[in-house]
What does this fold into?
Amino acid sequence: MKLIKDKELLRNIAQQIDLLNTIGGGVSETYVDIKKYKKGAVIEVWSAGVNPEAFRVVLHNNQLTIFSIFQSQENPQLGAPLFNKIFMLPPQVDLSRIEAVHQDGQLQVRLPYHDAATQPKEIEIKQL
It folds into this structure.
């Protein structure tokens, strides 16, 4: 059964099946997980058969939108949405340091917190 051992072939077949399902009215199965840590949070997105180039991450004010679009190779102006998710970011996220990384079929959006949010600070009490 060399056919099953060819992982690239299986990946391509799975991508085509998922794409045909999506275009035919189905949806792209997408898994989203949010992991919180002391110094920040990570949004993990895994969508079967979606190329890394299809993902987009857009930040507007405190709203983070993650989506993917299937672009037709015959007509680049024709696109079909595969996934769309909007996240309202809490104020402790340092918006200037957000980064997105695609690795091993998974998109990770890293949301570091402001240094002040992770370090306790004692407030001086003034005598009036």
User: Anything to note?
Assistant: The chain has three helices and seven strands. Residues 29-118 form a domain with the Immunoglobulin-like fold (CATH 2.60.40.790). The mean pLDDT is 81. The radius of gyration is 20 Å.
